[in-house]
Design brief:
Elements (H helix, E strand, L loop, with lengths): L3 E6 L11 H13 L4 E8 L2 H4 L6 E6 L7 E8 L2 E7 L1 H4 L17 H16 L10 E5 L5 H9 L5 E6 L7 E2 L20 E2 L2 E3 H8 L2 E4 L2 H6 L3 H4 L3 H6 L4 E3 L28 H12 L10 E8 L5 H6 L1 H6 L3 E8 L1 H13 L4 E5 L3 H10 L2 E4 L9 H8 L2 E5 L2 H6 L6 H4 L6 E3 L4 H15 L2 H12 L6 H18 L1
Parallel strand pairs: 1-2, 1-6, 2-5, 6-7, 7-11, 11-12, 13-14, 13-16, 14-15, 16-17, 17-18
Antiparallel strand pairs: 3-4, 4-5, 8-10, 9-10
Helix pairs in contact: 4-5, 5-6, 10-14, 15-19
This protein binds adenosine-5'-diphosphate (ADP) and alpha-D-glucopyranose (GLC).
Length: 484
């Protein structure tokens, strides 16, 4: 097998910096690809959290003026990841969330910040680093979207390009004037280029110019070709349907492994789930919930945003109460939702517990101690928490969209699909339908045999990257074969 060299371009990479699932994917995929003969290096911005780890890194190039200030390209290594880090302090030396100010608004120069990242990706594509000349440049989400566009407009021999959409809702929209300061020709301001409702979109750049487009589940690949799911890009994606495909995400099964998880109170293996009860007791304590083994404990680990449908879950609180269930929610984001959940916890002491914030360790305990994990998303490109739930014996209750549809088998469709049931799916995405699933789940929970069978089926599901990384490897090889 000829080795394939791929430059991945990502704005966040677990375990270095993470705001969502993109980081998980960018961190796990390169490692999983090693066994498939793919040598992947990842280019990311030199945020403070990244630079702290780069003390031993080698400087490959430096520029006195890179997009308005001094810049360097470093090559480093961290926990199995081969990294290129673009160290440009005036663009990236800002602590905290990589995209927004401490006040929570987008950094005003985000266009410049991520154009700079994509420009260097294209240069590496052209051979800037002789020791690593990629066959493929693989851009993740809008932050990397300009990479295929630069490679296109540079008009030189270039590597193949892949654009992966993790979330259609984030489109990297900027004023048209930006084109003049990021080294793209004005001809790029065109409907067949970056133009998008009078401005420009970095996501569109990637979708327009990448040789192949992927997204993170087959169902989402279909959904985004509709006007509604495409969020403005349905038409473009219908036109490019021939090069668009869905490859499901996996999870890092060494990070998410209940047998060796250092973050949970009691470890357990797939064949003996008795220790889940002990984790549930600790979870109830940490969320100020009544200690009870008999009350089904529903868990949520999520960004609080419109996408995730957690306003619908608030509407089902009367059902949760009426059914004698408990709810533990860990999340942060939308201020209004945060406050409404905190109010719900105050109004239902001992029954609803809420932790506002981002807490990796608590997320693991939630997976190990919750009986069910709820993901009521309005849209969900893939979703990772339901995959972790399968691996931890928490039963997913999910809406029937995107990757949730593809990864969970509903208790009612098991026989017909020939697959074993792993959870509960509801449609349409409404509070009523969710409440119906909660009632069904409650009944199943009290039928110990049914519940145990659901858990067993979930635990037997392969949620790892093994097969899925193979799909990416095949995609890269197909691209190379097409150009040979
Ligand atoms: P998205 O990327 O849309 O936020 P995913 O389900 O793909 O959704 O990925 C979310 C990732 O972030 C998961 O690894 C999940 O465990 C983690 N996560 C989300 N919210 C929190 C939180 N408040 N605390 C800890 N981890 C969180
Ligand atoms: C996005 C999506 C999520 C997906 C993740 C990783 O943030 O919202 O569904 O799992 O990217 O691909």
């Amino acid at each position: 097998m000829t080795p394939v060299r791929v430059l991945a371009v990502a704005s966040e990479v677990y375990p270095i910096i993470k705001t969502g699932g993109l980081a998980d994917v960018a961190g796990a995929l390169p490692v999983a690809l090693k066994t498939h003969g793919v040598e992947m290096r990842t280019l990311m911005p030199g945020y403070p959290d990244v630079m702290r780890l780069m003390s031993g890194a080698a400087e490959i190039r430096s520029w006195p003026d890179y997009f308005g200030g001094p810049g360097r390209l470093l090559a480093g290594f961290h926990e199995g990841l081969d990294l290129f880090v673009l160290d440009v302090p005036h663009l990236y030396a800002r602590p905290g969330n990589p995209y927004v100010t401490p006040e929570g608004v987008d950094w005003p120069d985000n266009g410049l910040r991520f154009a700079a990242l994509a420009r260097i990706a294209a240069d590496i594509g052209h051979g800037l680093v002789p020791a690593f000349v990629p066959d493929v440049v693989h851009a993740h989400d809008w932050q990397a979207g300009l990479a295929p566009a630069y490679l296109h407009y540079d008009n030189r021999p270039r590597p193949a390009t892949v654009m992966t959409i993790h979330n259609m809702a984030y489109q990297g929209k900027f004023a048209r004037e930006l084109i003049g300061s990021i080294g793209l020709p004005w001809s790029a301001f065109d409907v067949r280029g970056l133009e998008y409702f009078g401005g420009i979109s970095f996501l569109k750049a990637g979708l327009q110019f990448a040789d192949r487009i992927t997204t993170v589940s087959p169902t989402y690949a279909q959904e985004i070709q509709s006007d509604e799911g495409g969020m403005g890009f349905g038409g473009l994606l219908r036109e490019r349907a021939g090069v668009l495909s869905g490859i499901l995400n996996g999870i890092d099964t060494s990070v998410w492994n209940p047998q060796e998880d250092p973050h949970i109170a009691y470890r357990y293996g797939a064949d003996d789930l008795t220790f889940r009860a002990a984790n549930k007791a600790v979870l109830q304590q940490q969320f100020n919930l009544d200690s009870s083994d008999e009350a089904p404990l529903l868990g949520v680990i999520s960004r609080l945003s419109w996408q995730k449908g957690l306003d619908l879950l608030l509407e089902t609180i009367p059902t949760i109460m009426g059914e004698g269930m408990q709810l533990a929610l860990l999340g942060s984001g939308d201020r209004d939702l945060q406050e409404r959940y905190q109010a719900a916890a105050r109004a239902n002491p001992g029954r609803i517990g809420v932790v506002i914030g981002y807490d990796e360790i608590l997320a693991h305990l939630l997976q190990a101690g919750s009986d069910a994990l709820i993901v009521p998303s309005r849209f969900e490109p893939c979703g990772l928490t339901q995959l972790c739930a399968l691996r931890y014996g928490a039963i997913p209750i999910v809406s029937r969209v995107g990757g949730l549809e593809d990864t969970i088998v509903d208790i009612g469709e098991a026989g017909t699909s020939g697959r074993n049931a792993t959870g509960f799916k509801f449609a349409p995405v409404t509070a009523e339908a969710l409440a119906g699933s909660l009632r069904k789940a409650n009944a199943a929970f009290h039928d110990k045999q049914t519940w145990r069978q659901l858990q067993r089926n979930g635990l037997a599901t392969d949620v790892s990257w093994r097969g899925r990384a193979g799909d990416y490897a095949t995609l890269y090889r197909d691209l190379m074969a097409a150009r040979a």
